[in-house]
Each structure stands twice: as C-alpha cells, then as structure tokens.
Predict the 3D structure of the following.
Amino acid sequence: LGLLKETVTAGLHDMTKRKDQDATSDAAGAPSVPPAAPKAEQSTMNSQDHDVTVPALDNRIQGLIGRQLRTHYDALVNDKIPDNLLKLLDDLAKSEHDPKKDN
Amino acid sequence: VAAGASNDIHQALVAAMPNLRAFAISLCGDVTMANDLVQETVMKAWANREKFIPGTNFKAWLFTILRNTYFSNLRRSRREIQDVDGQYAALMSSPPEQNGHLDLQDFARALEHVSPDQREALILVGAEGFSYEEAAVVCGCAVGTVKSRVNRARNRIAEIMAMTSIDNIGPEPTAPALAVPARGSLD
C-alpha cells in the first residue's frame, strides 16, 4: 500500500520518458522529455502561459473558467462509482487471491 | 506476477477510480460510454500490470491507457460514421442552448463543445493538476502543443459562455480577448 500511495502522489515528478512506453500499443512512442523543463511552472488556470498562436484571455475570465472547471470536475470525482465497476475491482481482487498465491 | 505487486496495483486502481471515471466522463461527455471506457481501461491496466514501473506515476499511466483507448475508439467510430453522413458531425457541433445564466450546466455544455484533444489538455492541466510536461507525456504530444490546446480550450469556453454570462463576469465592456478566438490551423 505504502508503495503505491507514494507512487500516486510523489511519482508525478518521476514521470518522464520511461513512464508509459508500454502503456498501450498506440501510445505512439513516448515523446522525448522537453530539453529545458521550465522551472516549476504553476499549472493553474491562472498562469499566463503565452502562446504565439493563441491570444491569452483576460485573467478574470481565465480564473472564472478555472474555478468552474474544478467545481464541475470535483462533482464528477465525487460521483458514486457504479456497481459494475466496483464489482469489476472485486473480481480482480479475487482473481488475484484465488488461483495461487505465491507469497 | 508477484502477489504483493498485484495487491498494490489493485489498491492503486481502487484509489484512482474516482478520478479515472471523472476524466472519462469529461473526455467523452457521456456517462454510459465513460463507464465502459473505464471498465476497458481497468481491464487493460490489470492485464498489463507487470509493465507498470514502480515509482512512476500510476495515475498518469492509467490516464494514458484510458485516453489512448478513447481516441482509438473515436477514430474507429468516425470512420464508420463518415460513411453514413455528415449528420453526426453536425450534431456534435450544434451550439448549446443560449438561455439562463452562467452555471455548471452551462459550463458542462460549453466543455462538450471543445474539441476532444483540447478538452483533454484542459482537464489534465486545469482540473487534475498535471504539469504541462506530465500532460504532454499522457497525451503523447509536445509540451507546446499542450499549452496551445489548453489556451484554445479556454478561449473556446469563454467564447461560448460569453454569450450568456457577460454580466456575471462583470464590467468588461469590450473584452477583446473574447472577441478574437483563435481560428484556423489547429495543431
């Protein structure tokens, strides 16, 4: 459990080229890591990340969109997980314990 | 597969399920389809669990499987649908109803009218809190592409929502950024 917990949280920064090269077949060859990773760029909706091709929005509008997005998304995260998915997880746990445990 | 590792993977799957499902719903805009997508993703992840590298980001690994599955299903269904008619495309691009004020319903609708690749980038960065670099790995594209998609997604949402919500935003008489959404060459 500990291992995975730290995987889920701290692992974020280890996620580089090794990460998902075998995630699925059409992962399209993991992209090379950006040569110069911008330093601790905040990935919030309010950051002014300028892009030559796309005009930046007014900060207040960006902020509003960011808050709406998170509220919208949080509601989805907190939604009840349907029974068939819970059952699937149960079945996987059983399949792991049933056939032969090797330790 | 070592039982201990499987056990860890299983617990990580359980822990990631709410976010995986939220991502799926946001991506495909349909709860039933999202549940199927999550199921397919979980089964693929489980079947390939020995390929996960401990110490790397499990959630990102899972999200990558889900989005690759989604986009390859989408490509397939588009190929099938194109033969039928342009009707599906027309349906997908019909504007949201313009009534009422800025609320979550409006937002959800606006989000549906952002293209899938832009929506994906916006959710990963803006809702899941992935860095641009992490999002780029999940999406299999360049960091600059992620940034561009996030900006385009925001602009598109602002463009759609501005029609009903300009007074919620406050005194913004001209709001030039709203008036000039990027058009033309995507990616």
User: Anything to note?
Assistant: Residues 1-50 of chain A have pLDDT under 50 and may be disordered. Chain A touches chain B through 70 residues (CB under 8 Å).
